[in-house]
Description:
Layout: H1 2-11, E1 31-37, E2 47-60, E3 65-69, H2 79-84, E4 98-101, E5 107-115, E6 118-123, H3 131-140, E7 146-153, E8 158-164, E9 166-172, E10 178-180, E11 186-191, E12 197-204, E13 207-208, E14 214-216, E15 222-230, E16 239-244, E17 248-259, E18 262-263, E19 269-273, E20 282-286, H4 288-291, E21 299-308, E22 318-326, E23 333-334, E24 338-343, E25 345-353, E26 363-368, E27 373-377, E28 386-390, E29 399-400, E30 411-414, E31 417-425, E32 436-440, H5 447-450, E33 451-458, H6 473-499
Parallel strand pairs: 1-11, 14-24, 25-33
Antiparallel strand pairs: 1-8, 2-3, 2-7, 2-9, 4-5, 5-6, 10-11, 12-15, 13-14, 15-21, 16-20, 16-22, 17-18, 17-21, 19-20, 22-23, 22-24, 25-30, 26-29, 26-31, 27-28, 31-32
Amino acid sequence: MKKMRKIIAVLGTLTMIMAMGIMTHAAGAATGTITITPPDKTEANTENTYKIYKVFDASGNGEGISYRVKKSKSGVPDMKAIYDADPDLSWDAATVEHFILDSAGNVHFGTERIVDGKVVITDSKATELSPQAIAAVTAYVTEEDLIDTVTTTGVAPGSSHELPNGYYYVTTTTGAAVSINSTNPNASIQDKNTVPEVDKKITGASSIDEDGKKALAQVGSEVAYTATLKIGKGAKGYVFFDKMTNGLSYIPTSLAITIGDVTVDQGNYTVGTGSETDDYTFKVSFKDDYTKTLAVGTEISIRYKAIITADAVTVNPEKNTAYLKYGDENSDNRTPVSETEVYNAKITVTKTDEADKPLAGAGFILKNAEGKYYQYTAATDNTSATVTWVDNIKEATEYTSDDQGNLNGVFTGLANGTYTLIENTTPAGYNTADNIEFSIKEHDYTAKNLEQTATVINQSGAVLPSTGGMGTRLFYLAGTVLVLGAGLLLITRKRLQRLQ
């Protein structure tokens, strides 16, 4: 009886990658229920499919349980075959714990040795099976052993009912570790797989928020990203997907994958480029043989860059989203989407005269805080639009006002910074307007900051003297006064002479 209880302790838990449940520990219970709880942090719409296989028959009296090979089977899971297939392992039945079938047809888990020509079985005291034992069970069961399939959604548990007494093996599309918490007829299994995590951040731009989720960047410049994948327990089927909106152009040669400072060998993953219908820009598929060697919590860094190609994105940013698919090939398990946003700013100018009427023919250029001038190059079939800054004012892009007072261009694709608007060409008959300074603030993604405007007013020029000095009008006036005075004096003298 003590030996049987040891068997119960060992066979009651199957961990590491999958799990089994014992359903016959209570007296009089012919059937039981297995309730499976999905991993924590499973997305609300994510489905997990669990397949329940019956490995051994079981019978019990309320105190002890015995296990026997099913009638449809011959033998027990072959641990020796697993060891023989691995050059790093050495098989020794006397030291390696494995499944054993005794002469009476009972199933044990432990070691066996020959003593005086007889097989002596020592039952294991372990509470978990080794990965090799689990692999042996995986190879042992077939679709004929499948009893039920349970599908869960999100973190809500799922159950299988009316299961006959037996020793069960439960697989999951996550490739996760699940364990039986009780040997009662109503057993509970917690899927011990930890959902992998993805955190994407902007790591290179003109201005980046502290959390790395938003940035300001100039059109034509490169933006650097880092996506961090945290390995979960039972890592399997890891495929990283990245989607960029049209204003971002991925640079394939910039892709680098590391763990810490160590570069991940390219033989451990493949890279694919998506199409418009695939709904991703690129993907990285990690090989299961590689991810299973990584410790839970290992962080893989995926670094890459993109060029800002859109004009005047402003308050409608260019987005970059990433997520990780995981689990079996036919599963659709996904991590939450991690998203970043890139903005740029624009300055729009209109031109009027002092009467608030549109004024044509005024030309404007833009200068940055470093004293360089704005130069815009439009996109072509083979190139993207770019904003650059030049030293020579003659090379600057100049936008000119039309009859409606609107410029034939907008100073767009700007990063954060201080800029000066200069009237480089002034309409005939008007004075050149004063310079106007603009400040585009970092971490401010409002329209007020990113979509700045200015109305520039030109005053009509005043008529200046036609000659130097005081001019001639004063002399004309003085002359007239003298002539009138002389005439008045002459008349006065003649009247006095007559009186005499």
